[in-house]
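Dear support,

I submitted the protein below through the web form. The confirmation email said the job was done, but the results page showed an empty box. After a refresh the structure appeared. I'm attaching both so you can tell me whether what I see now is the final result or a partial one.
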Amino acid sequence: MTGSTEFGLFAPRKTMTAAVCVAAALALAGCGGKKNDVSGALAPSHVTTIGVNSYLWRASLDSLSFMPLVQSDSNGGVIITDWYVNPDKPSERVKVSVTILDQDLRADALRVSAARQVRQGDGWVGAPVQAATVQKLENVILTRARDLRRDSVGG
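What the results page shows now:
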């Protein structure tokens, strides 16, 4: 079949398929108008730009900013500080570990633990940490996280 265009570049079937594809693309392009972007107006409690809730993460870093960090992993949600000696109590030091367990801003998505040591002679000896101390630190972090969320909603 010499001279036939049935299998050539402008075959009727290929031309029709191309026309349908172009028409579909134009129709879909018309649907892409301005969307109502709610994410800028509301600060969701579920934030996934990092592995954990970003408000809890930022609040934890802010609350522990006076302590030297040993490890911080935003994907795993772990912050571990080095030993911190309060200048007012040089015979005592504290180490804090914060774990963020969820992507939602919830109180049970946060776990704080602390270790305390006191100086005895030339060395440091483990000492108990009051449960109220850990609870207060959790409350400070949660309050800061809520403030960060509120600030992002308000403007």
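Response: this is the final, complete result; the empty box was a page-load delay. Strands lie at 69-73, 78-81, 84-85, 92-100, 110-120, 123-127.
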